[in-house]
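Hi everyone, sorry if this is the wrong subforum. Our group has a chain we'd like a structural model of before ordering constructs, and none of us has done structure prediction before. Sequence below.
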Amino acid sequence: MLTDLADACRKSGLRVVEVPGWKHEGRPGTFSPRGVAAHHTADTLSDHYSGAELTRREEDYARIGLSTGHRELPGPLCQIGLGRDGTVYVIAAGRANHAGKVRSWGGWVSAGDGNTQAIGIEAMNSAYEGWSDTQSRAYHRLCAALCDHYGWPRSRVAAHGEISTSGKWDPGVNGRLIDMNAFRAAVAGVTQGDDDMQNTEEQYEIFRHFLARALRYDIRPLGAGADWKLGPTLWERLAQIEGNLGDQITAIEGADVDEIAQQVVESLDDDLAEKVLALLADRIGGKS
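Answer:
Right subforum, don't worry. Here is the predicted structure as tokens:
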């Protein structure tokens, strides 16, 4: 059981949500992973939802669909889910039904049961909507973090479509597997832990998403109570940037959210930005 899986995922710098009970979840049988298997879910959530509602539905899907499975295939269906906004859902520490029967590949996948050999990541994507830069970069960062944490070469990332014996083509677009050589090259090029927090597009997107959700749900995390104190508080930093933002906060919508989030991320030092992101992830995630 990979009970340190959430810690491994957090090394990616992405938002991590732990599905309740994940440390005890797993299918019977051997689980000795030597690499990562990449998948897509083929869900159609983005056809019906967007923004904060899409994220909420994806979290429900991670907790129910990917964790429990379905009539034809019992869960867990993967160890990790990856949302369209780059959120990482930790689902199971043990063996999962994600790869099925596989062929030998890459010097580390042996013919037989793929579920015993790889950590399975199910990226939430219909496979017809395309892959956003945000989700693609998150996929690369997550794979790099897992390989680094468990001491594997970063080349040990295989698409389900590369190892499957049953004609799978995930992760892909319109029936075709994505360019996995380019994918692995991007994973190899990830620099973990050295990025400047306030200037990375990935962190800005995460921050913008959290701030937009906070405003949409009217949680008012910015200076709302003693448990939001960061020292100096995010509210104080916002006040320095925008003046009397407190009187305006409930009226902020749309582009204003993006503008303010960008100013905030650019102004925060790395340590404070990390605290803000972690706190928003925890508190807003619990409200959704």
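For your construct planning: The chain is about 40% helix and 10% strand. The radius of gyration is 19 Å.
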